[in-house]
């Protein structure tokens, strides 16, 4: 059988990314279940830790999530006491999201997640970051072609 056959699943980059994503989902579920978070909630908290007070629109753009997915996610985080929502004082149509003290306290528990991911993958944090950089560049290039 010919190798690098574009019709073979194992030879398709898109399938490797897809199936790796599924493996990541299983790993993150195991890691985050202990903290009572889903993966989308986890990345929302990390995004707010980088820049608190983002509008729902900004947060959605950063996380590649549509508002119909993001709004219920934010409401669940708010019900858990991890974030608060408020109307922007300059434009009442804009809703801003902030981490609460409880949300900030959770960040300490989340610090071990990247190390656990690297450990599960059998690679170093530097290797993990190099892969992330490559995939981010690939994503940027693919989105530019849309």
UniProtKB/TrEMBL annotation:
GO terms for molecular function: DNA binding; DNA-binding transcription factor activity. Gene3D superfamilies: Winged helix-like DNA-binding domain superfamily/Winged helix DNA-binding domain. It is found in: Cytoplasm. Pfam families: Staph_reg_Sar_Rot (PF22381). One of its GO terms (cellular component) is cytoplasm. Its main location: cytoplasm. The keyword Mitochondrion does not apply. Residues 10-140 form the HTH marR-type domain. Keywords: Cytoplasm, DNA-binding, Transcription, Transcription regulation. GO terms for biological process: response to stress. InterPro entries: ArsR-like_HTH, HTH_MarR-typ, MarR/SlyA-like, Transc_reg_Sar_Rot_HTH, WH-like_DNA-bd_sf, WH_DNA-bd_sf. PANTHER family: ORGANIC HYDROPEROXIDE RESISTANCE TRANSCRIPTIONAL REGULATOR, TRANSCRIPTIONAL REGULATOR, MARR FAMILY. This is HTH marR-type domain-containing protein. It comes from Sphingobium ummariense RL-3. The lineage of its organism: Bacteria, Pseudomonadati, Pseudomonadota, Alphaproteobacteria, Sphingomonadales.
């Amino acid at each position: 059988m010919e190798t690098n056959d574009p019709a073979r699943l194992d030879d398709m980059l898109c399938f490797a990314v897809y199936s790796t994503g599924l493996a990541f989902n299983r790993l993150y579920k195991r890691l985050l279940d202990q903290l009572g978070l889903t993966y989308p909630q986890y990345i929302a908290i990390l995004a707010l830790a980088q820049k608190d007070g983002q509008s729902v629109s900004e947060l959605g753009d950063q996380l590649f999530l549509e508002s119909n997915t993001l709004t219920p996610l934010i409401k669940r985080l708010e019900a858990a006491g991890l974030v608060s929502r408020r109307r922007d004082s300059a434009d009442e149509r804009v809703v801003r999201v902030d981490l609460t003290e409880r949300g900030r306290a959770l960040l300490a528990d989340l610090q071990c997640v990247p190390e656990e991911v690297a450990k599960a993958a059998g690679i170093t944090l530097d290797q993990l970051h190099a892969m992330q950089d490559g995939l981010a560049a690939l994503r940027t290039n693919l989105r530019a072609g849309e």
